[in-house]
Design a protein that fits this description.
4-stranded mixed beta sheet; 2,3-Dihydroxybiphenyl 1,2-Dioxygenase, domain 1; alpha/beta
């Protein structure tokens, strides 16, 4: 069984491979002269309207933990043990301009891998009860499936996606079939 780090590395490898395939090809000479010098995402920063509510969403609803912060900025760092997100309080919440994924350049959404379909459906139920969370769509197949996902806006309006990879869905289905037999 793969650890979370192994699963994340596998997902990053697949996504990197897909991105490389879809990106326009540069000349072979340019590719030979360019070495990859980055090693994945260190952390992601999200500007939030209500720091306390967004921190409560990540820690209370998703089960993440705080990993520091800067009260003068103000910012709080949260983690699930693999990913780190910095939540930055905007200066004036009353004058924020809401992000429009179709018209603004910037973060379209942030996607998190979820352990299982059961956990995804449990998150959906939690989200229904959290004030300020807007569910864009409930758990559904991504394309033709079996990868399953849902999309929400956390209390400050950032779009978050929660994904159960197809390999995990198939493994769950296999276990359920074995239990029935």
């Amino acid at each position: 069984m793969k650890t979370n780090k192994q699963s994340m590395r596998s997902l990053v490898a697949v996504l990197t491979g897909a991105m490389m395939f879809l990106m326009p090809l540069a000349s072979s000479a340019a590719q030979e002269d360019t070495a990859v010098v980055t090693e994945g995402i260190n952390h992601l920063g999200l500007a939030v309207k209500d720091l306390d509510r967004s921190v409560a969403f990540f820690t209370g609803t998703l089960g993440w933990r705080t990993a520091g912060g800067d009260p003068d900025y103000p910012a709080v760092f949260v983690t699930d043990g693999n990913a780190f997100v910095t939540l930055w309080q905007v200066t004036d919440p009353a004058t924020v301009v809401e992000f429009n994924r179709k018209n603004n350049v910037g973060l379209h959404h942030l996607a998190f891998t979820v352990k299982s379909l059961k956990a995804l459906h449990e998150l959906h139920q939690k989200f229904l009860a959290v004030e300020g969370v807007r569910i864009e769509f409930a758990p559904e197949f991504m394309g033709q499936g079996p990868t399953t996902h849902m999309m929400i806006r956390e209390p400050s309006g950032n779009r978050l996606e929660f994904v159960v990879p197809g390999s995990r869905v198939r493994a769950e289905m296999k276990v359920n079939e074995q239990k029935e037999n």
